[in-house]
Amino acid sequence: MPGDSRAATNAATVLRTVLEHGPVARGGIAGLCGLSPAAVSRQTTALLRGGLLRELPGPADGVGRPRIPLDLHTGAVGGPVAAGLHIGVPSSTFSLVDLRGRLLARRAFPHEGRPPAGLSGEIAVGLGRFLAEFDSGRPLLGVGAALGGWIRPDEGTVVHHPVLRWRHKPLGAELSAVLGLPVRVDNHARAVARAEILFGRPEARGSLVHLFIGNVVDAAFGIEGTVHQGPGSAAGDVAHLPVPGSAAPCACGRTGCLQATASDTALGAEAVRRGIVPDPSVPLLVDAAATGDPRADRLLRERARAVGRAAALLLDVFNPALMVVTELSSVLDEGYLEEIRTAATALSHVCDDPRRIVIPHAGPAVLPEAAATVLLSRVFRDPCRSDERARSHPSV
Ligand SMILES: [Zn+2]
């Protein structure tokens, strides 16, 4: 149905223009995005009716609707929200964000003592309680879930999560059955890339690579506003990328792999081995460095340099406008970002500008925001098609 798909494309164009430039009047939208005033008027009417846009108090000169400023509906009364679920290894995080990706509420959900087999059910119940507690009557668009490993967003399945040991798990359907809400699932490196494209620096819309360093290491790249997934949505597995200068033995049988060299799992184990912290916890190590333990600081700088060398390889392959690195110590302390930048630009053949290497725009809120963006990026791609309609027309 070409008419429908053109309307959907136009609606997405109008919504993204308001995201980027709002508040902006209808006439301004037409000038910015190149659609005709009639097309803009049609789409703004639909988006106002759908509750995604709202009219702000207009100019007092009585010139009428074309001059009334429109913005995304982020109002405390009636502005839609999206729920986010980030599933990490030691804990999950629940969140609520508005249409500009701004964090309204968050809560940690520790996994301690919960075996991976029943974990997703317990997470769903916990998230349901969180959503009930923070229900302010604003429309809830659905849930975006983000986690590490190989994820198929089209099926909502976890193909393989190496640490939680989930295989071919229909996570989206499981969560949706408990919560009674539309649920979208994606890999968390791609989720952060989507959040950077929608809500971050303008260069991210041109091209970006995102490198995620957690218990699982992942990467994602986006070109012209689209995050690449490839066949089977398998893009971004950098666990066994060889880090120059590393001899760390990896479970795959080789040495120097990124996962074995620089993941939180590897770092936590090394911190315990060196007697810096009693438990293999990167947050504890970061706290130790922040309170002046030079051994913790030295180990975090070693890791930052390893991350920088891996980033250099990705910079050379993709030459992105922006290289976004999510790594706990550098998100909290710019000194570690400088280590990453120095190591990356020293090794890269194509990038000598350290400012191209950045932390996520949301800082410590990166994961709660990115998880909800798994849902929001779909809303911005196709704002007029609700998931309810998709469910009632399974062939759509
Ligand atoms: Zn390996």
Can you put this structure into words, describing what you see?
- The chain is an alpha/beta fold and 396 residues long.
- The chain has three domains: 71 residues, Arc Repressor Mutant, subunit A; 136 residues, Nucleotidyltransferase, domain 5 (2-Layer Sandwich), CATH 3.30.420.40; 160 residues, Nucleotidyltransferase, domain 5 (2-Layer Sandwich).
- It contains 14 helices and 16 strands.
- The strands form four sheets. A five-stranded mixed beta sheet has the order 6-5-4-7-11, sandwiched between helices. Strands 14-13-12-15-16 form a five-stranded mixed beta sheet, with helices on both faces.
- Helix 9 packs across helix 10 and helix 10 packs across helix 12.
- The protein is globular, with a radius of gyration of 22 Å.
- It starts with a helix and ends with a helix.
- Bound molecules: zinc ion (ZN).
- Zinc ion (ZN) binds next to loops.
In terms of per-residue confidence, which ranges show pLDDT below 50 for 5 or more consecutive residues?
A: 387-396
Ions, cofactors, ligands: which are bound?
zinc ion
Helix content: 40-55%
Query: If helices are DSSP runs of H or I spanning 4 or more residues, what is the number of helices?
Result: 14
Query: What is the residue-averaged pLDDT?
Result: 93
Count of separate structural domains: 3
Question: What's the architecture of the largest domain, going by CATH?
Answer: 2-Layer Sandwich
Query: C-alpha Rg, in Å?
Result: 22 Å
Kindly identify the CATH topology of the largest domain: Nucleotidyltransferase, domain 5
Helix-strand pattern = HEHHEEEEEHEEEEHEHEEEHHHHEHHEHH
Question: So what's the overall shape?
Answer: globular
Strand share of the residues? 15-25%
As laid out across the biggest beta sheet, the strand order is 6-5-4-7-11
**What's the CATH C level of the largest domain?**
Alpha Beta
Termini Cα gap? 11 Å
CATH homologous superfamily of the largest domain, by name?
ATPase, nucleotide binding domain
The counted number of beta strands is 16
Largest β sheet strand count, sense and barrel closure: 5 strands, mixed
Based on helices, strands and strand pairing, what is the structural class?
A: alpha/beta
